[in-house]
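Hey,
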Amino acid sequence: MRSSLFLAILFIIFHKNVFSQPGKTDFNNVLSHIESLRKNRPVENIYIHFDKPYYAAGDTIYFKTYVTLNELHKPTPLSEVVHVDLITPQNRIINSIRLKLKQGTAYADFELPDSLPAGIYRIRAYTRWMLNEGSSSFFNQMIPIGSIRKQPRQADISTEQLQSNKPDIRFFPEGGELLTDVELKVAFKAIGTDGLGMKVKGIIVDNDGKEITRFQSAHLGMGFFYLKPEEGKSYSAKLTFGDGSNVTADLPKANPNGMALSADNESPDTAIINVLTTKDYLKEHQNEDITLLIYSGGTPSMAQAKLNGENIDFAIDKRHLHSGIMRITLFSSQSEPMSERLLFIMNHDQINLQVKSEKPVYDKREKVEISLKAENQTKTPVQGNFSVSVINEDIIKVDENKESTIYSNLLLTSGLNGYIEQPNYYFVKSGDEVAANLDILMLTQGYRHFLWKQILADSLAPLQYKAESFLQLQGFVGTLSGKSVKNEKVTLSDPTGKGPELKEITDSAGRFIFKNLEFIDTVHFTITAAKNTSRIMLSSNPSPIINKDNIPGPTPDADSIMIAYLKIQAIDQEFKTAKAVKVLKEVTVTAKKKDSPYYTESLAGVAFANQVLHGNEIKGDGTLSNQLMGRLHGVTFVNGGIPTLDVNVNSMQSGSRPMILVVDGVEIRPPNVNEINSNEIETIEVLSLGNTNNYFASGDGGGGVLVITTKNPREIEVESSLDANVLQVSVLGFYKAREFYSPKYEAADTSNAGKDLRTTVFWKPDVIIDKDGNASFNFYNADIKGIYRVVVEGIDENGDIGRQVYRYRVQ
């Protein structure tokens, strides 16, 4: 039976009274939870615009970060510091910088050493506030780096981690689950051994072997089919993958008593949402209220109806919605979330950005004037902050489908789980086929930001990290025996005596912190404790552990598309005489105490561990727990890698207790050491007896603490003895971006010595659109003919984003 109910929902600015509907169920509680989430736990997203899609050893990676807040993408007012890491294929950080945000943006660069091995590297960016949501919220971008040198290519560990022995397939019933005697769409995604989508075709059969339907993938291993499960039947898929392999996989079991959402998003103006029920559920809940909660652009809206049929239709007017992911949740009369469906809204609500040059064809080394005009959808000029990159497309081949753009990142991938292949395909292409493939993506990837169960039960993990506004320097004051010293004055000063002195008092645990520091590059400080018998220990802000399970899918081998680019790079090396490329140096912390020559993130400090094992002493194969078994005194590993300490080490009691595991200053839960690559370890320290006092906040310390410090770059270098009450330290401040070199030529100057072989012809990260919506910039072409590609991206103060690609020819 199909109900004829048809509701039109107009989205307006959030106000609880507007959305409260008459009925048995009061959803003010649901709405208040959403409002509290938006107010107290806003979500930051990061997008990075790079000057080009890949690089060569000896090159410079120029980039600009855009940090936005919530679904409206306004420049964040929350964080003022963003961290950016350059990570090798082996998941090792080789450079890490901190940038000062201004109106949500900052720009910088990574200078690559010419000795850097070729491979697929990664750039990761995050704010301290984003740590509250976990590493899945970080920006991650795979960056192919080639080399003109004859050298082994770095193994792409990220690829190996995603590899399996055979292809895999996953099924995603529309609305969350199959229902007995209800026809629903079933989406699927086939994943190859390289972690990427692969072609698949198959046959659905029931438990009697009867063929029900056939299907095949439509795009990147994804597709769908319809299935109406019969009562008492089970179903499986007989699959043939693109590599010729065959496998049989079971489909999820159907629920005989439930509801589900189905959607039709084909119309450009209206989305039709169907509430489908089983006969048993309808019989049990006849005429009860059902509620749709629609969450779009950070705004919740609600509509209610009576459950008086097996199929109830709702209509959503999409013309007033923000582009991006719309989340629709079906609630029962008991306020229980029953089903969920994601739709993508594609409206013309972003910045209309016009890019023009004076003419379509230019000569080599000729000056190019580019003008910008930015307007919103009502033709009103907008002000904004933009970045511009110009490359030669004949040299740097670009696969536009695979590009990560400000559109694909902020509107699509930042709101979904997992790695999205070819994210820009859904924006540079158009038509019914693309829209259908985008809808399949909505069915397979899933919403990332929160789960209803956690929201309604107030069970979200407590906030552990505050947003950063400035730099800070923190540490611990203790006695020579390691006992904390409270209420002691600690002074921070400039060793030259020119700067101001800052003073802090240690807390009950002996900790101190100097806040609101702001400086560029490396600055030298003197830290002094009041008592000569006191000992100062500093702790840096370690980088978050690299979450190997959240690494974006591997980029296919880029060597083939980089051939022309690397040839130009090789020729360019022959003509470079004025400036040698600096080798990227890893910043490390050194401790110069003669009898304790190692750095530690332990709060107990150097030389206070019961045992220290250095990275070069870890030997053997297999997991880290296997390599450490029998090497650490009193430590055993259970349940696949969880460390436990024999309590005889601490007392006369027998037995063992779980240890606290701390990696680079961050407690890891569950404390499994097998998540750590032994090649990245600098030291492992076993803390027992009184040395665990500083970890009481994490646990009682009775099981001891296992402190692992990796070889990541450090931000503090200690220059004097660690057993003194005075420390001379060098602290890494905010990174100061280098200016992109853009040569200027006279009109007739085409015979200068050397050749202009710039691969990035122009990069300008600070283009400001004025109040009239205008901006302009100019540069000179290089010596290489071809199609020059101008990419302009940016954002205005209201969170509207804009992107435009413009091309001209150089002959």
